[in-house]
Design goal:
globular
Length: about 450
Amino acid sequence: MELGSLVRAVRSNRVLIGNEVSPAVIIIKDGKIQQILFSSNFTEDVGSEVLDVGDSVVMPGIVDCHVHVNEPGRTSWEGFWTATRAAAAGGVTTIVDMPLNSIPPTTTLRNFQEKLREAMGKCFVDVAFWGGVVPGNQLELRPMIQAGVAGFKCFLIHSGVDEFPHVAEFDLHTAMKQLQGTGSVLLFHAELDVLPTTGKTDDDPCQYSTFLQSRPDIMETEAIRTITELCLQYRVRCHIVHLSSAKALKLIQKARQAGAPLTVETTHHYLSLCAENIPAGATQFKCCPPIRRSANQEQLWSALKTGQIDMVVSDHSPCTPDLKKLESGDFTQAWGGISSLQFGLPLFWSSASKRDFQLADVVRLLCRNTAHLSSLGNLKGSLASGYDADLVIWDPETGFQIEEASIHHKNKMTPYLGCTLQGVVRATILRGRLVYRDGSFCPEPLGKHLLIPQRTNQAQL
């Protein structure tokens, strides 16, 4: 079957439907799942349009709702063409682009329209878009909702780029009032600068422990305390991005029990990497909030199992190699961000399968809940009649090593280079079209922009 072909049916001995894995045939019509036949004895004559994948697992395509594409403006860091090819290679059929670090950032209707123009004809998977909340842009929020953004992100601390300033509490009250009744969601980079500025430290900036001490847990817990109070006051959907500190989980649980419409994600790097194993000068491991210690990591895994953490994302945040300051190895000066969009599924499965997570947990945490957060839960993230025929076909038991030649991100730097993971993506189907198979891509980008229709308040996950 040629890349780009319409697939009329997919047959496998291992199709994940609900919590069960069984032989099935997925029938596709007009880019949607038409029906699922619970038998591999599919006899209808549809010629070469049936893709028989044998024992490979078939499940919904990954929905990664935290990706920094950086176009327009910083296309030397990444771009829609390379980011979405990497996504397709990783079984990711939908990404949601962050409002920074593009120039201009997605903080006005005009800037959003510019980003849509830039992305046109460059996307190999489907793309939705977050807007941004910055000081003074409150009157842009509703026009951006009407234009189709999935929601908004803000920072409570310096974002790392000057064109996306962080908000003060006054700005949050103003934004929350604009968002009330819209059904939209406000995402928070949850760190507050609560530490006194003591000037220069004598600690070695090439030691990871120096950087880790500069971003302690209290920065996350105090930020989340503020977020939970606002969420309860305004009853606007709120979401905490890239939680790294397990110490904040009790605050989140308490707010939810009080009725706060609050969700939370963590990332593959917080679940796969730990501070004790980061070598001196290895600035490719730097991100904010920081990778913490192994005991904290195990608490995050426990919270995923109990549902205290709702989803897992890449927070793909690439840059050019020079910004990582590898020559000096100075963690305090290096750009904070980790590239992993292509490898989210095997990264998660390699660790999760050792902790008794099942394939159904993968769908819940990487597909269904991320789709719901992005107001795509009626189209994406599930294998069911009427949903988009977005499928990942993969071999969970097969191992592979990450090599630079196989990385499709624009910049190949990643802390995972050389790592051996479990779970090889064989093929990716986007709305019934074969867009990736065994290292090769559809010759033309078939992804589309997902503009979110206006909605009223939605139930929590």
